[in-house]
Amino acid sequence: MRIYISCAQLYQKHSNLNEINKMEEVHINIFFAYSREDSILRERLDKHLSGLKRKKYINTWFDGKIEPGKEWEKEIDANLSKADIILLLISADFIASDYCYDIEMKKAISRHERGDAVIIPIILNPCDWSDLPFSKIQGLPQNGKPITSTHWENSEIAFDEVARSIKEIVENLLTTKNKHLKAINEVLYEKDNELKITLLQLEDYSFEQELVRESIQDLKREKKNLEEKISALKESSEDLEKSLKQNQMIIEKIISKEQVEVNKLRTEKDKLKIEIEKYKTEIIKLDIKKTNVEEDIKRMKNN
């Protein structure tokens, strides 16, 4: 059976492929997981990433971007789930926050372990995080000194170092994403060309309609033929069933009669056996009498 696709469907698919091919701009989504008490430090780091934003390399998101009327927990979860990089802004306040530690951090680590996102712990303030779940992940600043510690001449130098390290990670991720996009576009380009050829072949819509009508008529004829065959098979089946029942009854009657005759013969056979046994007994008796008479005759002769 031949199946035809409509021109409208083909045009829709062709349009979708063109839209996908236009999606050449790739960016990295960055999610800030932080405590509200560290909002000023988060804002400073975000500003140090402005160069990457200007180049349209990244989009940054934090809970302050939630629009009025939106469910904040759903919005946070949605943006955390699509983030390529998750920045954990580590401080005593972050560790003390149940939501930051138990919800955001655990989801972030889960995505990191699956390879769906990159976690970067950023140490804002001095705090003990050496044995926490994210301690095995390389954090920033690279020397492990908190941004607000006296190690730095001023915090802007620390923020600059962190931003430069994030830039390297972003550029590596962009390279990987662009490779994947190029491979996808090559496949889509081939499919796009195939669809263009198909569209040219089916450009005459009236021709396609005629093909569809012919297919429908063929199907209707096949359906009618099948219905007639099914009806004939049903009638033949009913006749055959009746014939089988009649033959079964005849056979049962014949068997019944034969069984009666067999039983009679068995009875006669049993009677004959009894008579034979009687004759055998009589013969034995006669033999005994004969023997006795012969002995009597011998004795008489001897006397």
Question: Overview of this structure, please?
Answer:
The chain has 303 residues and is an alpha/beta fold. It has a domain at 27-181: Toll/interleukin-1 receptor homology (TIR) domain (Rossmann fold), CATH 3.40.50. 69% of the residues lie in helices and 7% in strands. It has helices spanning 7-22, 39-48, 50-54, 72-82, 92-96, 98-114, 155-201, 205-302; strands at residues 28-33, 58-61, 85-90, 118-123. α1 runs antiparallel to α7 (155-201). The protein is elongated. The termini are far apart. 16% of the residues are buried. Residues 1-8 and 19-23 have low confidence and may be disordered.
Question: Segments where pLDDT lies below 50 for 5+ residues?
Answer: 1-8, 19-23
What Rg do the Cα atoms give? 51 Å
Return the average pLDDT rounded to an integer: 83
Distance between the termini: 122 Å
Task: Provide a count of the helices.
Answer: 8
Provide the CATH topology of the domain at 27-181: Rossmann fold
CATH class of the domain at 27-181: Alpha Beta
SS-based class:
alpha/beta
Largest sheet: 4 strands, parallel
CATH superfamily heading of the domain at 27-181: Toll/interleukin-1 receptor homology (TIR) domain
Number-wise, the strands total: 4
Write the CATH architecture name of the domain at 27-181.
3-Layer(aba) Sandwich
